[in-house]
# Entry
Amino acid sequence: MTERETILDTSGLRCPLPILHAKRALAKLAVGELLRVIATDPSASDDFDAMLAYTEHALLEKIEQDSRWEFLIRKG
# Structure
């Protein structure tokens, strides 16, 4: 069975908008589904680390490449 992955591109948005959009997207997913967030905000890494420290969601992957971040989150 393939896991469902939703992609949320927040490129160009500044803090706190990537986090707010991610929270809204996660609220629509079922437990266990995946959300891949793409962000270009320089503070995105710290912001997502802080958000996920206080939720039941799991960060499965964090990639930085060419001033672009990707976060793969499993809804808890």
In short: The helical segments are 17-28, 44-53. The two ends are 19 Å apart (CA to CA). Residues 26 and 75 are 7 Å apart (CA to CA). Residues 17-28 form the longest helix (12 residues).
